[in-house]
Design a protein that fits this description.
Length: about 500
């Protein structure tokens, strides 16, 4: 077949890009067309996303892709992080810049929410893990603050839905991102309207749910004129970036089997580490609730049974603080630093709330060690090793929980995303977990976005064939366990608190 090009707009918490997926019928290659920085904008004591700036960057990237690939381009789709949203008012007017999930307006909201609806009932209706920045608590914070945008809202759109609306004029809620809100029922695959109303939130703002692979339609004429992408359709990928990344896991076979427990798990490793399995059905049990796992929507009507772990955010923030202090480290230099520090000397729980948004991450790591009776890391090398080892030990803990929840032994851990490039973290994960680790592809989210578009286009039959293409197209690196005994003896304070 002639080469087809699918454009993935892939927006992460720290950067965004437009990527061209070039598919010749047998292999896929990626070409980054544009990249831009992303992040929160503080304003008036609040933290927002610069949505209009993001849109400007996206259209600039689409314009560059149109100039380069012209009529080879078949479609475009957008993926982003979860939980954050925008509100549209009368006449489809965006009422405010979307809040950033690290904005502190949800501090203390979990306990207030449980005073309205018990924790057990919320989980029974949603199957979602409890994190203070879930969309449910963001909306509750807005209601308690008598938010004018919420009072005027006619429609809620998750972040990728906002971009698809600007591209096509169609306002629709894609399922995988909607499943991160904590007001969607994973069993019925519909909004949990009774729960929403118990919190006195306006159900009218919840719209039609649509599946990955849905063809929304052509670009709006003004967008097509601006970008030069005439005749290009918009196709929904798994718009939650982890849903797209899981599609790109180079495991053999299609979606999860309903008759056998999974034998592999994934870690989508970036700012966050999302560790889980692909399940054919939600797991909404007391044990799942107690372990604070989540049931999020996957591609192919699967469920991503997973746990959010604070990931490379720890390293990113250390690097940022040290840069401000005049010490510049490349990522390779950070890994070399970690090698020079003694192993398993001080250990942290990367999910401690102290690491959510500290002003000084290295000092937050040292403070954790002090208050848990450990000698704090003395220098930058020890801080980085502490962070990496804490992540690896968290992976081990979550692996054990996954095996409890699924009733089988997981033999292989697939690490996809940017963390697959961190050889120290990958080897530490193999050592701590005592399992084979397969690292790659790095560009999993963009690959999964592109391959869902190719499935919708009919040039790839299904998810199983998509994974065949991915294995042929992208190299991976394997890591095998070494010296697991030392890791077995390691204990992290507060892991079980």
């Amino acid at each position: 077949m002639a080469e087809s090009v699918y454009l993935a707009v892939d927006l992460g918490a720290s950067s965004g890009r437009v990527v061209a997926g070039r598919f010749n019928g047998d292999q896929l290659s990626l070409e980054e067309v544009s990249r831009f920085d992303n992040g929160g904008i503080p304003l008036g004591g609040r933290l927002y996303w610069d949505f209009l700036g993001q849109w400007s960057h996206v259209t600039r990237g689409l314009r560059a892709a149109g100039s380069k690939f012209d009529r080879q381009i078949r479609s475009v789709g957008v993926d982003t992080w979860g939980v954050d949203f925008g509100l549209l008012g009368r006449g489809d007017e965006l009422l405010a810049n979307p809040r950033h999930y690290r904005d502190r307006h949800t501090d203390g909201l979990l306990e207030r929410a449980f005073g309205i609806v018990p924790r057990e009932e919320i989980f029974a209706q949603t199957g979602l893990q409890f994190m203070q920045f879930n969309s449910l608590y963001q909306l509750l914070a807005l209601r308690l603050a008598d938010s004018a945008p919420l009072a005027a809202a006619e429609r809620l759109l998750m972040m990728p839905d906002l971009f698809h609306w600007l591209l096509t004029g169609v306002a629709a809620n894609e399922f995988t991102n909607a499943s991160t809100t904590q007001f969607l029922n994973p069993a019925t695959r519909q909004w949990s309207l009774p729960l929403f109303e118990r919190f006195d939130l306006p159900a009218k703002i919840l719209g039609t749910l649509v599946e990955p692979g849905t063809r929304l339609g052509p670009l709006l004429p003004q967008v097509a004129d601006d970008t030069g992408l005439s005749g290009v359709d918009v196709v929904l990928p798994g718009t939650h970036d982890t849903a797209s990344a899981v599609l790109a896991v180079p495991a053999e076979g299609g979606p999860a089997s309903p008759t056998a427990p999974p034998h592999w798990c994934y870690i989508s490793s970036g700012t966050w580490s999302l560790m889980g399995v692909e399940s054919p059905h939600p797991v909404v049990t007391d044990l799942c609730r107690q372990l604070n796992f989540t049931n999020e929507g996957g591609v192919g009507r699967t469920v991503r049974l997973l746990k959010n772990i604070s990931g490379l955010w720890l390293l990113q923030e250390c690097r940022r603080v040290w840069s401000q202090q005049g010490r510049e480290y490349s990522w390779d230099a950070l890994n070399a630093l970690a090698d020079s520090a003694p192993p398993l000397a001080a250990l942290i729980d990367p999910d401690d709330t102290a690491f959510l948004a500290p002003a000084d991450m290295p000092e937050a790591i040292r403070d954790f060690c002090r208050r848990t009776g450990q000698t704090p890391p003395a220098d930058d090398a020890a801080v980085i090793r502490c962070a990496l080892e804490g992540l690896a030990l968290k992976y081990r803990q979550v692996l054990g929980w996954l095996e409890q929840l699924t009733g089988g032994r997981i033999e292989t851990i697939h690490i996809v995303g940017g963390g697959a490039l961190n050889r120290r973290l990958c080897q530490f994960a193999a050592d701590a977990c005592g399992r084979r680790v397969v690292a790659g592809p790095v560009e999993a989210t963009a690959i999964g976005n592109v391959m869902m578009q190719a499935i919708a286009d009919g040039v790839v039959a299904d998810i199983g064939q998509a994974r065949d293409v991915i294995r042929r197209s992208f190299a991976v690196e394997e890591y095998h366990p070494r010296d697991t005994a030392a890791w077995d003896e390691a204990r992290v304070p507060q892991f079980d608190s």
